[in-house]
Structure formats: structure tokens, C-alpha cells
Specification:
Blueprint lengths: L1 H4 L7 H6 L1 H14 L9 H14 L11 H11 L7 H5 L5 H16 L28 H15 L8 H4 L15 E5 L10 H10 L4 H24 L1 H8 L10 H16 L5 H12 L2 E10 L4 H6 L4 E5 L1 E5 L6 E7 L7 H14 L7 E4 L5 H5 L3 E5 L4 H10 L2 E3 L1 H7 L6 H6 L1
Parallel strand pairs: 1-2, 1-6, 2-3, 6-7, 7-8
Antiparallel strand pairs: 4-5
Helix pairs in contact: 4-7, 7-8, 10-13, 11-12
Length: 426
């Protein structure tokens, strides 16, 4: 500091500040070290500033220095209260103006910037803090002391700090995505196709068995399905979690999942898709709706159907995977990743997708068939129930004023055949 300021023509800092003639040089050096002077305080401002600060602050400015010799030198420069210590002067109302001026000088000497440019306060837009290397100390106590000194100076109006900037809250809000799109959210099983997740699993499992083993396994698994029906009636989310255990130990390699999905689509899903559902999806695509499937089925299992429907996004259950033993490759653990996609979780996923992709839910549509879809139907501007799966769902549709569509009934009247060519051409 002595070299930079050049006090007293080469004299030491202590000697220079004790010499009346050197005091003028000291002041000039301080101004030069602080860079361009951005503001000035007259004597009335200093007095008012000091009185106000002495009444409102209780910090210790001496903590802002790191060297005891420098501290003593500053005390000599300030010549506080007729020889009082710096600490005593801070608590002395008569010496307060000098303490205030010292705080301003300390700011300019140590940091080269006026208090109005406090480096760590919120930026004008209140988003990010401005990084400043001068505030990176090895001692947290020292840093807090330096912050107190600068905040002391920044608290007075004569410093011409925009108080709105000083007090602006520090926010870290995510960029707001304009809601300029609309989407159509579809449940799958019972809404787009006359299908269910258990039947999908049975088809995939039987394809891996010989005729003999299928003959033994199917009756036993039918008993388990009766149990699943009871659980599903009580809670669709609980059923999804229990059902995932059936996949435990099955191969989860990319090739295995792709093969399993294609078998399920060809042997089961293809002929069960409602032609009116396909036509409705195509019409919505023409109206620039994003098509989103929201289903409790497994994500990899419905990939072929998602491609046929030209779905823009799929929200579905996903199974955990791990490395199998004895070089078996990747296998399913029998657990779902995250919360099952059913009931209230459907609403959560739909709203998250809308937020991330700029979807205006008030202009969007949703389609479902059961009470587990009700939460999803509630969060859009226009909802429809497809062939209600229960009296409770039909009653709910009437109460809410939701449109009721008979896609399943129309499919059955047509003999249950899929307009497969229409779907493939979609």
C-alpha cells in the first residue's frame, strides 16, 4: 500500500500520516489509487452521514483490515476524537463524522470504488450477483467485516445509491416459456385401444415359453390376475407398482425390449385400436395440436403404437434396469422409476410437460376412460370421456359436463376389426 500510494515522498505510512505536509500527498495518493472519483461529499453531508450511521450501525470497521500496522496508521489518519482508539471513536457520537469519512476513505483505498458500486449487491435486474475478486478472502470474519464497512457507506442517501437496487431481492427464476402451443393428452388403454397392461405382459411372456410351459403357467397367472383386479379397483397406482414385479429378471437389453414391443403390437394391440381414435388423432394433428400419450403402460411396450399415431411425446411408466448375473446382460429389477403414472400423477406429469413445452392448458384437450384419468381431465380446457369404464366415471362426466364418446362401442359394432391400413397411413 505504501508503494502504491507513495506517501510522504517515500516516507513510511505511519510517518507520512503524522506529518501535516504529507497529509496533502496522502489525500492525493488516496484519490489516485481509488481511480476516477465518482462522487463527492461536502462537510454537511459528512456530518449528517456520520450521525445517521452512528445511530444505526454496530459493526467494527477495524475488522476490515488485515494488518495491525495499517490499522494503526489509519487511526492516525483519522485522528479520531482527540486520540481515542478506533473502537471508542465508533461509539462516540462526536467522533462519528470522522468515522464515517474514514469508512468512505477505507472503501476507496482498499477497493478503488465508491460505495455506490458495492460489488456483491444485486444487479439492477435483481437476477444475478456480480462477482468481484476483492471480496474473496481466506477468512470469513474478515469478509463480513469488509461487507459491514461498505454497507455502512452505502446506507446514506448522499452516496446517491438507488435504494431499489440495494434492496432488490435476489431471484433465480427460470425463464418463462411463452404458452403458445396447444396439446391433446390421451390415455391409452381403454381410450385409444381396447387393451390393458396385463394382457400385454401375457403376450410377451408366452412368446418366450414352449407350449408345455404355457399350459402350466397360464392358469396360475390367471389366479394372480384376479388379485390384480381387486388391487386396481382400490388404487391404480398401487396396482402399477405391484405389476412391475412381474418383469423382474426379464432381459432389458435394447434388442429384447424392441422385440417384445413389436410382438405385443402385432399379436395384440394392432387389432384392438379404435379406428375413431386414430381418425380423431389425425384431425387434431391437422389443427396443430401436440399429441401426447399419458398411460400406465410401459414406455418401451407402446413405442410401435406411438409411431403409428405420430405421437409427439409419451408419458408412461418406466422400469428400472440393472446388470444381470453370470453375463446375462441388462435385466429389469421389477421396480418402476419414480411415481406410477396414474391418478394424481397424471395431472402432475401433464402440467410439467405443459410448463416445459409452452403448452396452454386452457386451449388443450384430454381424453380418458376411467376415474384414474379424472385428475388429468380436470387440468385442461376441454375434456372428453371415451366409453366410461364404470358407472362412477359416467356420473363424473355428467357432473363435470365432459363430452362422452363411444369409440369402444362403435368398434364393437363394426366387428372389432381395426382399420389397420388407416392407422398405418396416419
Amino acid at each position: 500500500m505504501e508503494s502504491a500510494l507513495g506517501f510522504g515522498g517515500g516516507a513510511s505510512f505511519e510517518a507520512a500520516v503524522s506529518d501535516d505536509a504529507a497529509a496533502v500527498s496522502t489525500t492525493a495518493a488516496t484519490t489516485a489509487a481509488g481511480g476516477e472519483k465518482k462522487f463527492a461529499l461536502d462537510e454537511m453531508d459528512v456530518a449528517a452521514f456520520g450521525a445517521d450511521a452512528a445511530a444505526k450501525t454496530s459493526f467494527d470497521p477495524t475488522a476490515a483490515t488485515c494488518d495491525e500496522d495499517d490499522q494503526e496508521a489509519m487511526e492516525s489518519v483519522l485522528n479520531l476524537a482527540g486520540g481515542k482508539s478506533f473502537e471508542a471513536a465508533v461509539n462516540d457520537s462526536e467522533a462519528a463524522p470522522a468515522v464515517s469519512a474514514a469508512a468512505l476513505s477505507l472503501d476507496q483505498i482498499a477497493f478503488g470504488t465508491p460505495p455506490s458500486d458495492v460489488p456483491w449487491r444485486a444487479s439492477p435486474d435483481g437476477v444475478d450477483d456480480v462477482d468481484d475478486e476483492t471480496m474473496r478472502t481466506d477468512d470469513e470474519a474478515d469478509q463480513e467485516a469488509m461487507e459491514d464497512v461498505l454497507n455502512f457507506a452505502a446506507s446514506h442517501p448522499s452516496c446517491q445509491i438507488d435504494q431499489a437496487d440495494v434492496t432488490a431481492p435476489k431471484t433465480h427464476e427460470k425463464p418463462v416459456i411463452a404458452k403458445s402451443h396447444k396439446a391433446a393428452f390421451f390415455d391409452l388403454d381403454g381410450t385409444i385401444a381396447n387393451s390393458n397392461v396385463v394382457a400385454q405382459y401375457v403376450v410377451a411372456k408366452c412368446d418366450q415359453m414352449t407350449t408345455f410351459w404355457k399350459f402350466l403357467w397360464l392358469p396360475l397367472y390367471a389366479l394372480k390376475c384376479a388379485f390384480y383386479l381387486v388391487v386396481d379397483w382400490l388404487s391404480r397406482s398401487t396396482f402399477n407398482a405391484l405389476f412391475a414385479r412381474d418383469f423382474r429378471g426379464m432381459s432389458a437389453t435394447r434388442a429384447s425390449k424392441k422385440k417384445m414391443a413389436q410382438i405385443v403390437y402385432d399379436k395384440y394391440m394392432h387389432d384392438r385400436v379404435f379406428p375413431n381414435a386414430v381418425a380423431h388423432v389425425n384431425a387434431l394433428k391437422e389443427e396443430d395440436y401436440k399429441i401426447v400419450l399419458v398411460t400406465g403402460s410401459l414406455d418401451f411396450m407402446i413405442e410401435p403404437l406411438a409411431r403409428v399415431l405420430r405421437a409427439d411425446h409419451v408419458i408412461a411408466n418406466s422400469l428400472e434396469e440393472t446388470e444381470g448375473r453370470y453375463g446375462k446382460g441388462t435385466v429389469f429389477t421389477g421396480k418402476l422409476k419414480g411415481t406410477p403414472v396414474a391418478d394424481e400423477e397424471k395431472r402432475v406429469r401433464v402440467m410439467r410437460y405443459a410448463e416445459q413445452h409452452g403448452i396452454d392448458l386452457a386451449r388443450s384437450k384430454a381424453y380418458g376412460d376411467s376415474l384414474s384419468d379424472a385428475a388429468m381431465l380436470e387440468c385442461v380446457g376441454e375434456a372428453a370421456v371415451v366409453s366410461p369404464s364404470s358407472a362412477g366415471m359416467r356420473r363424473r362426466a355428467e357432473e363435470e359436463g365432459w363430452e362422452v364418446l363411444g369409440w369402444r362401442e362403435e368398434h364393437e359394432r363394426a366387428g372389432g376389426a381395426l382399420a389397420g391400413r388407416a392407422g398405418a397411413a396416419a
